[in-house]
């Protein structure tokens, strides 16, 4: 047939973008993204704080910091970022970060391929907390963050223009940290 071209073996990869969460319980795989793929991820850092955490355990203690970052995009909306740094002296691997106090809403979630750190979260989950009243978001790591390692930056992008105090917890194979301070979208 004249005028037909066969392009065998040619595939054009679409950029990987942040994935929307749900307002019903969910579990979503995270493929990773970058500012090149999503220029809307670029913005002005309005908060960048290192917050210490510790998991008390007789056999598997863990400690480190969580970098809590808030970025205002060109559209004025806030993205909430975290980066976990598991201390070299820790005995446990970090497997998840759970965040409470976020309004139950649809957010864009993912992790940044174009930043620091080496371990990426594999999925984000959302659902009711143990009290069955509040909503909880969790980023889990299929490959745990070993002592001396740090995660990639991961985020929830919101429609909020202001932030309020909230809490998070680190989970390891040996236990869960006490609550520590993070920021969340103002409801």
Give a quick set of tags describing it:
7-stranded antiparallel beta sheet, 187 residues, mainly beta, single chain
Structure write-up:
With 187 residues, this protein is mostly beta strands. It is built from no helices and 13 strands. It has strands at residues 19-20, 26-29, 43-55, 62-73, 78-86, 94-100, 108-111, 123-128, 135-145, 154-157, 163-172, 175-176, 180-185. Strands 2, 6, 8, 9, 11, 12 and 13 form a 7-stranded antiparallel beta sheet that branches. It has a 6-stranded antiparallel beta sheet with strand order 1-7-10-5-4-3, with no helix packed on it. A hairpin with a 6-residue loop joins strand 8 (123-128) and strand 9 (135-145).
Oligomer: single chain
Number of strands: 13
Order of helices and strands: EEEEEEEEEEEEE
Average pLDDT rating:
89
Low-confidence stretches: 1-14
Helix content: under 10%
Helix and strand content put the structural class at mainly beta
Shape: globular
> What's the total helix number?
0
Distance between the termini: 60 Å
Major β-sheet profile: 7 strands, antiparallel
Radius of gyration (Å): 18 Å
User: Beta-sheet strand percentage?
Assistant: over 45%
What's the layout of helices and strands?
Layout: E1 19-20, E2 26-29, E3 43-55, E4 62-73, E5 78-86, E6 94-100, E7 108-111, E8 123-128, E9 135-145, E10 154-157, E11 163-172, E12 175-176, E13 180-185
């Amino acid at each position: 047939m004249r005028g037909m071209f066969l392009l065998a073996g040619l595939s054009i990869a679409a950029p990987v973008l942040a994935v929307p969460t749900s307002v019903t319980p969910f579990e979503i795989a995270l493929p990773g993204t970058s500012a090149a793929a999503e220029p809307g991820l670029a913005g002005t850092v309005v908060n960048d704080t290192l917050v210490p955490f510790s998991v008390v355990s007789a056999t598997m203690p863990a400690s480190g910091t969580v970098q809590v970052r808030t970025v205002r995009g060109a559209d004025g909306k806030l993205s909430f970022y975290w980066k976990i740094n598991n201390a070299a002296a820790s005995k446990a691997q970090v497997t998840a970060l759970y965040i409470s106090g976020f309004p139950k809403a649809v957010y864009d979630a993912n992790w940044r391929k174009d930043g620091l750190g080496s371990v990426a979260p594999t999925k984000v989950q959302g659902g009711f907390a143990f009290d069955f009243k509040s909503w909880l978001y969790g980023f889990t790591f299929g490959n745990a963050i070993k002592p001396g390692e740090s995660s990639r930056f991961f985020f929830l992008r919101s429609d909020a223009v202001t932030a309020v105090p909230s809490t998070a917890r680190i989970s390891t194979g040996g236990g869960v940290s006490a609550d520590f301070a993070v920021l969340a979208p103002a409801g």
